[in-house]
């Protein structure tokens, strides 16, 4: 992997990590366009640079992590389903899911359609967005949000998208579920990255480590801007545009693969 390729993938990760469009799916498709062959290192790279984006959340929300014990307990409860499923299916995720571009295309398209249909259904509900503060969130609701996030072990589903849909269904306000999704990403990606490094550190060479460091740093700085932009967007908009984007992107890549 060249430095240029690492920069491109770092930008893709930073922009997409917190949007309901699947950062992992975008990284896989981006690697395909860059001509990078499937490998153990590439799969690890796609996982590890996500931690760069996650560190931007720690920087922006450090007060919550240090001072709000109950909030962190709820985040950890939400993390449990993904931890159990992710660790149990690690080999399948790594060797099958993260090497199947068609699975990403399918998940992007179906996920986009679900996002659009869900927003249409939500617009017809009389009582929505009743939960505005983390203090109002129960541990049961936290666990259910975590169950939704666990669906994102399938690349293309979108960790952010799954948690956002789950939160809106539970009557969270948009800004709250987006921020909760940010916080939940921290233990999720730290665990995923740490476990992957433990399993595959022997596959990293000095050249690979340089590319990894570049992708990591780029994703961190790009994510800082993406988080603030996304929060400003959700205050006054729904997620239909993201659903349309997912479906269009899936069709484009399907055509690319077929040609």
Output mean pLDDT: 84
* Strand coverage percent: under 5%
Rg from Cα: 17 Å
Number of strands: 0
Poorly predicted regions: none
Counting DSSP H or I runs of 4 or more residues, the number of helices is: 12
Task: Sketch the topology as an H/E string, one letter per element.
Answer: HHHHHHHHHHHH
Query: For the terminal residues, how far apart are their CA atoms?
Result: 25 Å
- Report helical residue fraction: over 70%
Reported for the largest beta sheet, the result is:
none
Counted up, domains total 1
Helix and strand composition category: mainly alpha
Q: What overall form do the CA principal axes indicate?
A: globular
Name its key features.
259 residues, mainly alpha
Structural features, described:
It contains 12 helices and no strands. By secondary structure, it is mostly helical. α1 (3-16) packs across α3 (40-60), α1 packs parallel to α11 (206-234) and α2 packs antiparallel against α7. The two termini are 25 Å apart.
């Amino acid at each position: 992997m060249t430095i240029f390729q690492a920069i491109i993938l770092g930008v893709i990760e930073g922009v997409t990590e917190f949007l309901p469009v699947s950062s992992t799916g975008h990284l896989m498709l981006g690697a395909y366009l860059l001509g990078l062959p499937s490998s153990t290192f590439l799969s690890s790279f796609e996982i590890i640079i996500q931690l760069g984006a996650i560190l931007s959340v720690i920087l922006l929300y450090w007060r919550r992590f240090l001072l709000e014990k109950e909030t962190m307990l709820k985040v950890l409860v939400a993390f449990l389903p993904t931890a159990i499923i992710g660790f149990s299916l690690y080999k399948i995720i790594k060797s099958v899911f993260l090497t199947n571009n068609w699975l990403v295309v399918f998940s992007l398209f179906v996920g986009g359609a679900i996002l659009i249909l869900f927003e249409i259904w939500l617009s017809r509900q009389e009582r929505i967005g009743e939960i505005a503060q983390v203090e109002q969130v129960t541990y049961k609701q936290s666990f259910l949000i975590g169950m939704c996030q666990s669906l994102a072990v399938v690349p293309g589903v979108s960790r952010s998208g799954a948690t956002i849909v789950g939160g809106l269904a539970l009557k969270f306000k948009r800004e709250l579920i987006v921020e909760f999704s940010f916080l939940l990403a921290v233990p999720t990606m730290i665990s995923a990255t740490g476990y992957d490094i433990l399993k595959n550190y022997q596959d990293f060479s000095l050249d690979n480590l340089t590319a990894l460091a570049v992708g990591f740093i780029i994703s961190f700085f790009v994510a800082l801007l993406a988080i603030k932009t996304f929060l400003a967007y959700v205050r006054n908009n729904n997620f239909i545009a993201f659903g349309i984007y997912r479906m269009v992107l899936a069709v484009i890549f399907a055509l690319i693969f077929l040609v």
